[in-house]
Write a structure and sequence with these properties.
- It is a single chain.
- The chain has 250 residues and is mainly alpha-helical.
- It has one domain.
- The protein has a three-stranded antiparallel β-sheet with strand order 1-3-2.
- Helix 6 runs antiparallel to helix 7 and helix 7 runs antiparallel to helix 8.
């Protein structure tokens, strides 16, 4: 009994690592995207979050804006690309830590879901690498490699949001924090919202100066980041509740 309690306590502490990593990743993303936006040179016109895409922020050369048809330069492109890389890496590390800490809670009901979510984690991380390493600019379009950039977005949007949805199917897949009914309901909403945004992105007509590329691209990725924050909060709450529920020694 003592060894089992020690194992559970150790698992809870390891799960806290994932929570801290998730929060750090989201904070890092927010800072890095804002920093990249502040270095986006677009003349006298203001940055339009609704139209300008994350992909534009990561292009490492001066380009003619594909929607507005004037020169733009993302002087801090490295910040946006680093945001992609760190988001993919930390998501993967956090998920793998939770997968490890919850290994003693595996049931017949959760085995398949855990395997699928492991694969989705790998695909999500790979998608972020593609987004950050192959840019979405005219040079890549000329070289006929821009498809890899959009493949990266596809992996991130589908794998990341499917992971959120699957976490709502059965509780306790990656830990007791996923058994909370509010966590599962919000995970489902976030996942469906992200997939809907990606559908809208794919359904955009021929792009012009007012096409909401930025809105739907961000709408495909932000819900995954929000799910990480939700997971972190749920881990902190469940760990705190578990600690307070332990009987005190006489």
């Amino acid at each position: 009994m003592a060894s089992k309690a020690q194992a559970q306590n150790s698992g809870s502490m390891l799960a806290m690592i994932s929570a801290v990593l998730y929060i750090a990743s989201i904070a890092g993303w927010g800072f890095l995207e804002y920093y990249a936006i502040s270095g986006f040179d677009h003349g006298e016109r203001g940055y339009d979050w609704f139209i300008e895409s994350l992909s534009d922020l990561g292009v490492d050369y001066r380009q003619v804006h594909p929607l507005k048809h004037y020169n733009v330069t993302s002087h801090r492109f490295a910040a946006m690309n680093y945001a992609f890389f760190q988001a993919g890496a930390i998501f993967a590390i956090g998920q793998l830590v939770l997968l490890y800490t919850s290994r003693q809670r595996i049931t017949q009901e959760t085995t398949t879901l855990r395997t699928i979510r492991f694969l989705l984690t790998v695909l999500f991380a790979g998608g972020m690498v593609l987004l950050g390493s192959i840019h979405g600019g005219p040079r890549e379009k000329f070289w006929k490699i821009i498809g890899w950039h959009w493949n990266g977005l596809t992996l991130v949007a589908i794998a990341g949001n499917l992971n959120s949805i699957l976490s709502a199917v059965v509780g306790n897949q990656f830990g007791r924090h996923e058994s909370n009914s509010a966590f599962r309901a919000l995970s489902l909403v976030l996942g469906l919202g992200g997939l809907y945004s990606f559908y809208q992105f794919l359904s955009l007509p021929e792009w012009d100066w007012k096409t909401p590329v930025g809105l739907w691209q961000r709408g495909s990725i932000y819900p995954v980041l929000a799910w990480e924050l939700l997971s972190a909060i749920s881990i902190l709450v469940s760990t705190g509740a578990g600690s307070s529920a332990k009987p005190k020694r006489a």
